[in-house]
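Record filed below.
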Amino acid sequence: MTKQEFIEGLAKKTKLSKKDARTVVDEALELIVGTVKRNQKITLTGFGTFEARKQKATQRINPQTGKKMNVPAKSVPKFRPGKAFKEALRK
């Protein structure tokens, strides 16, 4: 499902216009990204948790040259599905 298909489905289910549904989706995603970017966690009970995880700095080997290179520490997004979400997929 694409974002556009999601918006159309949301509009149909909620009887919102497509424009309003797009605004809701865009604002929700912006809120999630902004919150996780500030290293805060978002928990949507039954659905899951969005959070930022820190990855340590590492050393890797460039396969083309064989030289060692340093990869700096960074934060990466992480989603952990909730119990209800996992159980819905098992049925």
User: Anything to note?
Assistant: The domain at 3-90 is CATH 4.10.520.10 (HU Protein; Chain A). The mean pLDDT is 95. The first helix runs from residue 3 to 14.
